[in-house]
Amino acid sequence: MSEDPFETLEELLSAILGPQTARDAVAALRSSGIDPERLASMGGMEELARMSPGQAMAMRAQLSQMFAASSSEPVNWTMGRDLALQRAREGGDPTVTAAQAQAIRQALTVADLWLDTATEFMPAPGGREAWSREAWLTRTMPVWKDVCAPVAQAATRALSEALAHQMRGLGEAVGEEAVGEASKQAGALEAIMRTMAGAAFGMQLGHAIGRLAQEAVASTEVGLPLTREPGTALLPANISAFAAELEEDEEEVRMFFAVREAATARLYAHVPWLRGQVMSAVEAYARGIAIDTDAVEAAVAQADPHDPEAIQAALAGGMFSPQSSPEQLEALGRLETLLALIEGWVQVVTERAIAAHLPRGMALAEMMRRRRAAGGPAEQVFAQLIGLEFRPRLAREAAELWRRIGAESSDAERDAFWQHPDVMPTASELAHPEDFLTMRRADKDMDAEMDADLASLLDGTLGYTDAAREADRADQGGRGERDGGPGPDGPGAPGEEA
């Protein structure tokens, strides 16, 4: 490599970003007034200059993968998927046997029979399948894109704004004349920063989802349907590991998760607005994402610039932080409440369905609640990727609310609340489940009274009592007689001349 640090950097970027983009980026750095000796003293530049051709090619290949994000997408999804598959295969990914597939299909079929006694919702359409960890990743990755893309878009947009701010600060520091040429090349620098952010987020996504693939037991996690197609699926290898860890009977554990999976699938299949509401809440939450630029600068300053994983770790360590604006808090509350209502309903319906069939069913349900409260792998993934932390208290309150509605009225009335988002329980109502039905029925009676008053207003009878109506009719009859109208004995009284 060249002894000139700028030329060394340009050679490296040229292999990654292309000659023109590399020239633009290095030209911006030269014009910004950066001292070549200072650039040469930066961590890793001396090592770059001493690299052998083979080492340089290996590093270029590694960085090329890191920067291989499409300019039209905020995340390097290819890198994320590859890293997730690599992580999921750690320790092996057993192939699903024919016997395991048959056991899963049978469990999901029986689960639907049990659920028929616990909910008004019919079984979800689609197949009943057994997946390996790799199959889980392949089938769920499109939905992970849907969930993470809004946050990634907000993050990269904020990163671009931070870059513009840095350019303005540079202009104030070295003078407009010195930074003029660099400003012309800001687009190239912005593209590089966007690519780095997309690569960092892709790597973060891959590590997190790959870890979840090692423990996920179904196609739904924390109330989210992770596939776009209807149907149900379980992962026999992870179910076996879960049962062994808890020292529980594997068949009973399989049936427990089959009922949970089938219940969640029914809810999403027969509540058409639900998926859209969840995704819109994620998008609204993502709009408030901000970047802690001070934390990023401090982290990157300590990273090895020629080590992609070190760069990724530096960016992921402090890049994204939720903004506590009123809009952000409102979106977060709406999302948390909706996911709690889903999880609470699934808990209640599952407990009802398994009560007469699984001796250890209630113990397994309690284990699941504790796992959620402690922050299982799925909860950790969401906290890491989009900053969303689940509150177990909300799920407990939601379960208690659904349980009370079913006990005090019926399963049909309980499930009817899913007909439209406007009639769903609110966050404040979750805190007082004992008063929910009383208040809702009072509101319904008040609405009926207002509708009756409106109808009376339109037909001119508003405020009339039954006695007033009778008196009015009598008065109308009396006026008719005085005006020569028909009296009780017909037209004209007896003895009167016509």
TrEMBL record:
One of its GO terms (biological process) is proteolysis. The keyword Electron transport does not apply. This is Zinc-dependent metalloprotease. InterPro entries: Zinicin_2, Zinicin_2_N. Keywords: Hydrolase, Metalloprotease, Protease. It comes from Actinomyces marmotae. One of its GO terms (molecular function) is metallopeptidase activity. It holds the Pfam family Zincin_2. Residues 467-484 have a biased composition (Basic and acidic residues). The lineage of its organism: Bacteria, Bacillati, Actinomycetota, Actinomycetes, Actinomycetales. Residues 466-498 are annotated as: Disordered. Residues 485-498 have a biased composition (Gly residues). The keyword Thylakoid does not apply.
